[in-house]
Amino acid sequence: MRRTPEPATLSPFDEAHEYHLMDHGEVNRRFVDDLLQRPIGSRVIDLGCGPAAIAIELCRRDKDVEMIAVDAEVEMLEIAKREVDAAGLLDRIALHHADVCEMQFYSDEMADAVISNSLIHHLDHPEQGLATARRLVKQGGRLFIRDLVRPANEREVESLVATYSGQESENAQQLLRQSLHAALTLEEIREMARGLGIRPDHVQMSSDRHWTIDWSGKEK
Hints:
Layout: H1 12-21, H2 25-35, E1 43-47, H3 53-61, E2 66-71, H4 74-86, E3 93-97, E4 111-117, H5 126-136, E5 137-148, H6 154-165, H7 170-182, H8 186-195, E6 203-205, E7 210-216
Parallel strand pairs: 1-2, 1-4, 2-3, 4-5
Antiparallel strand pairs: 5-7, 6-7
């Protein structure tokens, strides 16, 4: 099945609020669980932070972390600000409005760790987003990126939609369906990673629908 970039079927406001209503709790907790298996340092950038659920979870569990949480959608950042404020973490999570493919004014190697969950499939040019993440992490720092895997066919798409969003709204189901069509295969993301000096064995399937890059600049 060929990759199909996501169409703009909802307004940014409606999409942000639909996403916020969806239950990502277990996925977010597992992301942070897996991230904290290895050191991350104290300065962390979260690319495509959405409503900042992962940033909040990480700061609650690691008291030494300070974060820059980046998203391209103002509507999503408005939700994130309310959530960060309610969590009492405005002093540790700085919200930035930026397109991950246009972050040339952010310094190279500025973060101990760069993380991202389910951003890459949203990008028209995912290789640019991955290159930004690689550029921002310091030498010896940690890169931890997770995203959806594109299924082989429509039957697999519909099976995943039914399993993971069958109880959600029709809009939520369609958003997941579109995301799966826009996702990369494991082979595609490994090839992009290889071009940035990240060995393919640092890119692994981490669930029935996700791949994960877990790489340190110390590793060759």
